[in-house]
Design brief:
By secondary structure, this protein is mostly helical. 59% of the residues lie in helices and 6% in strands. The strands form two sheets. The chain has a three-stranded antiparallel β-sheet with strand order 3-5-4, sandwiched between helices. Helix 4 runs parallel beside helix 8 and helix 10 runs antiparallel to helix 11. The model has no long low-confidence stretch (mean pLDDT 91).
């Protein structure tokens, strides 16, 4: 539904030229959203998909193992949208501290994102509310090392920024002037907490994402933090027990449509078209995560069944296999440390795992070899270029 723009423009002068900055009105939209029958049905089906997703975390044998990898996959995807080249394997190698040669600046960005996710979830689990303070704390984690560390981590911007283009004059979009950021973000915080009126969760998440990206409150990291806030909102209200829903793959797959619809909301107030896109993404992503989780559970079960045929080596092989589920790229020395087994015993276990094609050696070196739980990484790599 076309309306008027969702905010107003202000003439400003920045970096030596004049342009117009955009200041969004507070949420919820006015006039009210028009939720037709098709959108109602989509919302109902998406809530069912979310319920299935939430229940899968109850059925997982070890939820922490799956979260460990899902969070890392999300970190890679969200950072790739911002232009990094790191892969999931790069991140795992970086975290192993045993493999040189990964693109260090890119992988630090991804590693920071993992830290930021874990920090935000920890704070929510401690009972801290989703608030401007928490958003700034998470941002500080996101940019605490590497290229973003000079971009005022944890602080709302005090200078003008812009999106697209080489300067404000040819930018695709110019967010609010810095003196408007605190007011805009304060209104968004109220909306998180159902002020001035209660808003259904899916609609709240969809509207909040557009509003955050429109305000663009930080000098750097707005895209990554905006995507992370979707997950935090679902967890904060108890819709998800675990942080297992991430939309970065969906946004990356439909990147141009994503950007076009964000801009369409700003210029024409077409919230309904955005809602359909966003809620479809939640539904598809929820279904994909359930399917991926089932693949992983099936893989682990099949591999354990193979290892149970090894006779006296079964026990040690199963212990190494358990470690590989959390650290799917690992050295013999590290696996020995993690399992408490001797190096010769772990070496023999890896020989069996390689024979059964459960792991493969990935360095080609004679010393300092690393082994990858290949099929596990391949399943999680689906959608990551």
């Amino acid at each position: 539904m076309k309306r008027t723009p969702i905010g107003y423009t202000l003439p400003i002068s920045t970096v030596g030229e004049r342009c117009h900055a955009f200041v969004p009105h507070p949420l919820p939209p006015q006039p009210p959203l028009q939720i037709n029958d098709d959108l109602h049905e989509l919302i109902d089906n998406t809530l069912i998909a979310l319920g299935r997703l939430d229940s899968i975390s109850i059925l997982l044998p070890e939820t922490s193992l799956f979260l460990y990898m899902y969070i890392r996959k999300e970190a890679v995807l969200s950072s790739q949208i911002e232009g990094t080249q790191s892969t999931l394997s790069d991140l795992l190698l970086f975290e192993s501290e045993e493999a040189p040669g990964v693109p260090i600046d890119d992988v630090i960005d991804v590693s920071n994102y993992v830290t930021a996710i874990n920090y935000g979830i920890k704070r929510l689990n401690e009972g801290f509310p989703l608030s401007l303070r928490l958003i700034k704390e998470i941002h500080a984690q996101l940019l605490k090392k590497g290229r973003g560390s000079s971009q005022s981590p944890g602080e709302f911007r005090r200078t003008q920024n812009w999106i697209g283009g080489t300067r404000p004059g040819n930018a695709l979009f110019v967010p609010p002037p810095p003196e408007y950021v605190m007011t805009c973000m304060g209104d968004l915080e109220k909306f998180f907490h159902n002020q001035p009126e209660k808003t259904p969760l899916l609609i709240k998440a969809a509207l909040s994402h557009v509003q955050f990206e429109t305000i663009h409150p930080f000098l750097d990291g707005n895209g990554r933090l905006g995507r992370l806030l979707i997950t935090l909102l679902f967890c904060a209200v108890g819709a998800l027990k675990q942080p297992i829903l991430y939309l970065s793959l969906y946004f990356k797959t439909h990147r141009q449509q994503y950007y076009d619809l964000l801009q369409l909301v700003r210029t024409e107030g077409d919230w309904e078209k955005w809602l359909h896109f966003f809620i479809t993404g939640v539904k598809k992503t929820s279904t994909q995560v359930v399917e991926t989780t089932q693949k992983v559970i099936h893989l682990f079960e099949n591999d354990r069944n193979q290892l149970n045929t090894l006779g006296k080596q079964t026990g040690s092989a199963l212990r190494v296999h358990q470690v590989l589920q959390q650290k799917p790229i690992i050295s013999i020395a590290k696996a020995a440390e993690e399992t408490g087994l001797s190096v010769p015993t772990v070496t023999a276990a890896f020989e069996q795992l390689m024979r059964l094609e459960i792991v493969r050696e990935v360095t080609g070196r004679k010393r300092g070899r690393l082994y990858m739980y290949a099929q596990y990484v391949d399943i999680l790599n689906e959608g990551i270029s």
